[in-house]
Amino acid sequence: MSETVERHEFGAEVGRLLDLVVHALYSDREIFLRELVANAADAMDRRRFEALTSAASALPPDAKVRIRPDKEARTLTVSDAGIGMAKEDLAQNLGTIARSGTRAFSQTLESAKAEDRPSLIGQFGVGFYSAFMVADRVTVTSRRAGADEAWTWASDGQGSYTLEPAERAEAGTDIVLHLKEDADEYLEPYRLDHLVRKWADFITVPIAIVQDGKDEAANQGTALWRKRKSEITPEQYEEFYRSVGMNFDKPWATLHWRAEGQLEFSALLFVPGMKPFQALENDRHSKVRLHVRRMFITDEAELLPPWLRFVQGVVDTEDLPLNVSREMLQSTPALARIRRAVTGRVLSELTSRAKDADDYTTFWENFGPVLKEGIYEDHERRAEIAPLLRFRSSAVEGWTGLADYVARMKDGQEAIYYLVADDAEALKASPQLEGFRARGLEVLLLSDHVDAFWPESLSRFEEKPLRSITQGGLDLSAFAAEGETAEAPEGIDALVAAIKAALGADVSDVRTTDRLVDSAVVLSAGSGPDLQMQRLLRRAGRGPGGAPVLEINPRHALIRALASGPAEAVTEAAGTLLDLARIQDGDTPRDPVAFARSVTAALASSRSA
């Protein structure tokens, strides 16, 4: 070591702190490249800012961040043409852990005009040390803009560093990482290109990867969301949409705006024009990308709630508090305000687009089931989501909304009726609808996987309660049924009692009903959740203890025959009636084999008769 080399100790409790930074602060090794590129970009922005008042600090015409892998030497070099560092800067910024030169510099900008201030990323002074995750030795050679001398800082990350004079033709900094044996992937240009495009694709500073002595551009350098709408063509929007979400279609909606004032951020979001290949049920997390000053931070910031997880795009903010690793977000009021603002804007766009029924149908058929989740998940937004819901109906073709349903309600109708089942086509033929159709009462037909859950959470719409028609106690006597002439037969009360006795604990009750026309029997919920919810709970092994109610149509020919027939026939028929009612509701017979035998015997008996 030459006589001019000076040895200094780190200005911190080195061993423990540096080990923490290198091994515990970051969850992914690849983060080191983002941190070094961020520092390089900050240095170039600082030099550009100083050039406003000092011609000596002007950036070279071809200024860029260069990333140069050297497989033979096993080194990775990150170079910039930024402001550079003098000897004292190297000692203070790199020799004192958690002292950020960027942060110190930003504190001097308070008097500068807003439009002149550089957009600086680094804040904590620890990102540089992430280099030791992949390198066992790091050297930094830097020359301060306006200075004639350069210095080299070097350390193996074990608690000390060296400073010595060096040569560098121009102002700027070279960071040389001597890679560890298990870090070969960072010597591959394709891998480096991938990391730059992932983490730093949109920062304004050009980034190049040196391959075979040539600079290959590695980032776009243009953040589309930072431009004015008037400057962007539809083709550019579509290209960005396809790149950010790996889509092949055209977006159904494009939301591009900038929020200004106390909270500033830019957003470019898309509602896809088709369902993604991967089912949205597999991952219920929003993947909208969070950028801070164009630098990608995470796509796990949950910027939108799970029930808007189909929305894709970018939110970029100027000043969002992050933790020191910039991998995770601190829970701050600023982040909560961004989430509320972005969610509100998406809902506003959906509300506006819903006015065009044909256009909105495209969205609804793709993402309606996901949007419904917001009814039971988001109490605060429930009233905003409800008007956006669409349903099939027993009374009209196509899709209809709750407001349209209410407008069509009959005089004296107090509730919004709905029916839930697994099969949309089976719903249309369900016996549950017979009495409602006969009385001109509309029923909404629900068959999505979430439909068993959200109606109870919404409870009411425009002061009208939502009521499942499979819940017991529905009274339709206030509405006259078309063609209802036959009277209940004599002996019906005795028949009801006999069927109830024969079925025992399999039913909670047996009673006559006026909501059947063509069918002999139907089930309803005795108490608690409706039939669909009870089925789902049973499938999950958490079914309620109550048995269903069997309702019988006293005007049906079969029921009339049983009422006037021998008592032993009722005992034999009771189980078959219950199983028929279960099948009609999309369920299975209690004992499929016994049911098949019963039906076979009945058919044989009718043939012989």
Describe the model.
The structure is a single chain. By secondary structure, the protein is an alpha+beta fold. Helices cover 33% and strands 19% of the residues. 39% of the residues are buried.
In CATH, the topology of the largest domain is named Heat Shock Protein 90
Tally of separate helices: 18
Strand order within the widest beta sheet: 1-6-5-4-7-3-2-8-9
* N- and C-termini, Cα separation: 114 Å
CATH architecture of the largest domain: 2-Layer Sandwich
> Whole-number radius of gyration?
35 Å
User: How would you characterize the largest beta sheet?
Assistant: 9 strands, mixed
Q: Quick one: how many beta strands?
A: 22
Shape by Cα distribution: elongated
Protein topology:
Layout lengths: L5 E4 L4 H10 L7 H20 L14 E6 L4 E6 L6 H8 L6 H6 L28 E9 L6 E6 L4 E7 L5 E8 L9 H11 L7 E5 L2 E4 L16 H12 L7 E7 L5 E7 L17 E4 L2 E4 L13 E6 L15 H21 L3 H21 L4 H4 L6 E2 L8 H7 L7 E5 L3 H5 L5 H5 L4 E4 L7 H5 L1 E2 L2 E5 L23 H12 L5 E4 L8 E4 L6 H9 L9 E4 L4 H8 L2 H18 L7 H17 L1
Parallel strand pairs: 2-8, 12-14, 16-17, 16-19, 20-22
Antiparallel strand pairs: 1-6, 2-3, 3-7, 4-5, 4-7, 5-6, 8-9, 10-11, 11-14, 12-13, 15-17, 18-19, 21-22
Helix pairs in contact: 2-5, 14-17
Keywords: ATP-binding, Chaperone, Cytoplasm, Nucleotide-binding, Stress response
Function: Molecular chaperone. Has ATPase activity.
Subcellular location: Cytoplasm
Q: In a few lines, what is going on in this structure?
A:
The chain is α+β, with helices and mostly antiparallel strands. It has helices at 14-23, 31-50, 87-94, 101-106, 189-199, 234-245, 333-353, 357-377, 382-385, 402-408, 424-428, 434-438, 454-458, 492-503, 531-539, 557-564, 567-584, 592-608, and strands at 6-9, 65-70, 75-80, 135-143, 150-155, 160-166, 172-179, 207-211, 214-217, 253-259, 265-271, 289-292, 295-298, 312-317, 392-393, 416-420, 443-446, 460-461, 464-468, 509-512, 521-524, 549-552.
